[in-house]
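Researcher: We plan to redesign the surface later, but first we want a full-length starting point. Tokens attached.
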């Protein structure tokens, strides 16, 4: 293998990694938008507790929301957990839910994680692509 072929192979690897990292935020944002589109009604939910994932020293906290639809209470744990408690118990948050299935919900205030991860992966993708070029 010549030196030029080696350089082209390494450049191709960086371009491939850049493309792979570019796909992650695209898929995450597409999933987020799909879920948001499913949730066609809005209500106010109350943070009633937190679920702790992990051990006592590395616990992440997922808020548990209570909200009412047609006089029925729903208590749902967020799929997103945070290193700290993002909300206080008793806080009110805007929550969107699916009118056909109120178990499906979406909280806009939690979406900063998706946006943050998207930015990080976008930066990594750009750097890898530039290195490959």
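Model: Full-length starting sequence:
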């Amino acid at each position: 293998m010549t030196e030029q072929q080696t350089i082209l192979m390494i450049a191709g690897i960086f371009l491939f990694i850049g493309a792979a990292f570019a796909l992650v935020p695209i898929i995450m944002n597409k999933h987020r938008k799909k879920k948001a589109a499913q949730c066609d009604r809005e209500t106010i939910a109350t943070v009633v507790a937190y679920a702790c994932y992990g051990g006592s020293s590395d616990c992440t906290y997922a808020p548990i929301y209570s909200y009412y639809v047609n006089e029925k209470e729903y208590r749902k744990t967020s799929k997103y957990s945070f290193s700290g408690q993002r909300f206080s118990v008793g806080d009110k948050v805007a929550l969107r839910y699916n009118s056909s299935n109120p178990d499906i919900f979406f909280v806009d205030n939690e979406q900063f994680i998706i946006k943050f991860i998207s930015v990080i992966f976008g930066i990594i993708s750009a750097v890898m692509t530039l290195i490959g070029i």
